[in-house]
Amino acid sequence: MAGLFISFEGTEGSGKTSIIKEVEKHFANKGIQVLTTREPGGIRISEKIRDILLDKSHTEMDAKTEALLFAASRRQHLVEKIIPALNEGKLILCDRFVDSSLVYQGIARNLGVDQVFQINQFAIENLLPTLTIFIDVRPEVGLKRVFKTPNREVNRLDLEKFEFHKMIYDGYLSLIKKYPDRIKRINGEQTIEEVSQDVIALIKLYL
Ligand code: TYD
Fold first, then answer.
1. Which atom of ligand 1 lies nearest, measured to the CA of 12?
2. Rounded to the nearest 5°, which phi and psi values hold at 75?
3. Rounded CA gap, 196 and 22, in Å?
């Protein structure tokens, strides 16, 4: 039996990691084999690529290099982890996938969505998730959740952050328009339990 590949996307403070945990618990309790993963997802080679990507001292990193490294890490994770799990019939819940690159590198880093999609196509060879769940939390709400202190003075960095997050958020909305059959939006501005219930109901339609 072929499995089901689902990815989750969202901006900072969207709660997607907690939601994925709840969803995993629900389906595992029902006896469904679930693989919860995230890029790089514990794959040796991808972890090394991640270290290069996240190293704060790598300030000279070119945007295209960054996009290629994310794609390289994605390729290895796909081949070593996702494809075998699909062949084993598992339900795969993947925290971020190609849409993160389309939005972060394509839009925020200004490389262009189509160009970033092309280099990712080399890595994924049409293997897109059957369903991508966008946890929709407006950036002002997400950032408030992250900072939590409502009266905190807004500094330059916070402003930059807000603009950055707004760009990411708007990017996701444009992707939903581009891929309406694959990407579904869930209202993330509810309690974790409520969001998880909505996500579970959506996934059940695909099982
Ligand atoms: P992570 O700590 O995993 O963040 P989060 O909890 O938000 O998922 O860091 C991943 C960061 O890398 C996040 O800011 C999004 C970014 N990213 C890209 O820019 N491109 C990509 O293709 C992926 C997968 C992540």
1. 7
2. -60, -50
3. 6
Q: Judge if the beta carbon of residue 96 lies within 6 A of ligand 1.
A: yes
CATH of the domain spanning 4-204, picked from 1.20.1290.10, 3.40.50.300, 2.30.110.10, 3.40.50.150? 3.40.50.300
| pLDDT tens per residue, range 77-113 | 999 999 999 999 999 999 999 999 999 999 999 999 9
Runs of H (alpha helix) within the chain: 16-29, 44-54, 63-77, 83-87, 98-101, 113-124, 139-147, 156-178, 192-204
Task: Answer whether 101 contacts ligand 1 (Cβ < 6 A).
Answer: yes
This prediction's pTM:
0.94
Which of 76, 100, 124, 128 for mutating ligand 1's site (highest number of atoms within 8 Å of CB)?
Answer: 100
Could you tell me if 8 and 20 are in contact, meaning their C-beta atoms sit under 8 angstroms apart?
yes
